Amino acid sequence: MLLRRELVLTAVLGALLAACGVEEAPMEEAPPAWPEIAGYELMVVPADNPMTEAKVALGKQLYYDKRLSGDGERSCYGCHLQEHGLTDGRATALGAFDRQLTRAAPTMWNVGYYDALYWDGRSTALEKQVLGAWGGGNMGASGNDGAPSMEDICAQLNEISGYAEQFEAIFGGPATPENVGYAVAAFMRTIVTTTENSRFIAFMAGDETALNEQETRGWTVFSEKAKCTNCHDGRLLADKQFHNVGIGMDAEEPDTGRARVTEADEDTGAFKTPSLFDISKSAPYFHDGSVATLEEAVDLMLSGGKPNEWLDEKNLEDAKNADLSEEERADLLAFLQALDVEYTIEEPTLP
Ligand code: HEC
Ligand code: HEC
After folding, report:
1. 125 C-beta closer than 6 A to ligand 1
2. 129 alpha carbon to ligand 1 midpoint, in Å?
3. For 166-175, what is each residue's pLDDT tens digit?
4. Phi-psi region of 52 (alpha: psi -120 to 50; beta: other; left: phi over 0)
5. Contact 256, 288 (CB under 8 A)
6. Under 8 Å CB-to-CB from 64, ≥6 apart: which residues?
7. Residues 162, 347, 134: CA angle, nearest 5 degrees
8. Is residue 6 scored above 50 in pLDDT?
9. What is the rounded CA–CA span in Å between residue 10 and residue 24?
10. Rounded to an integer, what distance in angstroms lies between the CA atom of residue 163 and that of residue 60?
11. In whole angstroms, what separates CA 325 from the centre of its chain?
């Protein structure tokens, strides 16, 4: 997807230059055109981890490689699958060594645009998040109870010449947990909804034909009548904030979400507004996977969320009072389905 766009750009540029009688510039000089959300703020890339094609390619291999996990059976991609909208299709994830985790896997679309990661926002940089997922329950490279540590796994990666050579060329040294974090983070910054793969982004960028009539009516319900955009806002369909909509609050020991990080009472049961890209494929829904279908999830939001002491009633008021007709509800669902992302994954060849 990415390479294709670069090639097209290079070809156009080449043709133009040729037409002017100028010789084509060598490819190295053209800065890579990384995918971006049209009309949105630029992604912030940390100064110490610049994007390069070689690093992104290495990060992609590592992201797909089961040899990274503590039990040898899980890759990052294994819980963030295309057929499930870059989630795992489970209510809550099943981590390495078949350890049942407590939260649902969120989509990977546009993760590079967030400054707070996870449902509770506890991680503030992708580079660090990779190490959390890798050494923690998801991938299980903890170094505890007989499981290999991240350092142990790096030692194994360094035995594979195809990896050792890439680390040497990119980082000037062998694989280390830190370098793996940098490479995988760089790759994740390329998982972006663009005018090419997302009809919604094309629509927002001014192509009114990108959504059909029903989907356009659904967008009006979403943005003007029910004001889902109070939280699912802008090009990301997410405001980067945390809200309590009441999910899981009736559990015996509720997951307090954002309050775990801030220790502020008002953040109790607040979770990061999820992006709704690929939403039709990412059932079951919510941070605890407690809702099976998109229809039920939407009806829950339209009912104003689940009552509890910390419910964000203010932002849910318009949804609660929207009183949609059957037709409007169908339009809203059609709009949500139009948020599917159309793309083909080219799985990397592993060294
Ligand atoms: C066993 C399944 C599983 C595996 C394997 C896994 N993840 Fe995840 N991922 C999850 C779950 C569950 C969450 C949400 C956890 C939370 O919010 O507490 C998550 C969250 C994330 C997020 C945050 C997204 C957001 O919107 O905040 C990123 C980024 C991510 N994972 C990347 C990775 C990377 C990189 C790897 C490999 C090193 C990986 N994942 C491996 C299940 C998995
Ligand atoms: C108060 C802010 C807010 C408003 C308004 C709001 N949402 Fe949400 N929405 C959230 C949050 C936060 C979550 C995640 C809650 C959780 O898992 O605990 C969520 C989850 C969802 C999900 C499930 C996503 C997933 O990945 O599991 C869907 C679908 C959804 N909302 C659709 C809507 C629709 C449609 C509307 C308008 C009728 C709406 N929302 C209005 C904040 C909001």
Report:
1. no
2. 8
3. 999 999 999 9
4. beta
5. no
6. 75, 76, 77, 347, 348, 350
7. 70
8. no
9. 9
10. 12
11. 33
Cα 267 to its chain centre, rounded Å, is 23
Ligand 2 within 6 A of CB of 338:
no
Amino acid at position 167, single letter: F
Tell me, using a 6 A CB cutoff, whether residue 60 lines ligand 2.
Answer: no
Q: Between the CA of residue 167 and those of 31, 148, 171, what are the distances in Å?
A: 21, 21, 5
What pLDDT shows up at residue 3?
A: 41
| Residue 179 token pair | 């370098």
Q: Ligand 1: which residue has its CA nearest to atom 23?
A: 118
pLDDT confidence of residue 133: 97
pLDDT in tens, 85-135: 999 999 999 999 999 999 999 999 999 999 999 999 999 999 999 999 999
Read off the pLDDT band of 9 (50, 70, 90).
Answer: very low
Closest CA to 189 of 29, 55, 89: 55
* pLDDT > 90 in the chain, percent: 89
Whose structure tokens read 């830190």?
A: 178
CB distance 43 to 36 below 8 Å: yes
The token pair at 346 is 């080219």
The set of long-range contacts for 211-219, using a CB threshold of 8 Å and a minimum separation of 24, is 211/335, 211/338, 212/338, 214/330, 214/331, 214/334, 215/331, 215/334, 215/335, 215/337, 215/338, 216/335, 217/328, 217/331, 217/335, 218/331, 218/332, 218/333, 218/334, 218/335, 218/336, 218/338, 219/335
The pair of three-digit structure tokens given for residue 316, joined into one six-digit string: 């849910």
Distance (Å, rounded) from C-alpha 242 to C-alpha 204? 24
Q: Can the peptide bond before residue 307 be classed as cis, meaning omega within 30 degrees of 0? A: no
- Which ligand 1 atom is nearest residue 75's CA? 5
Q: What is the pLDDT of residue 30?
A: 59
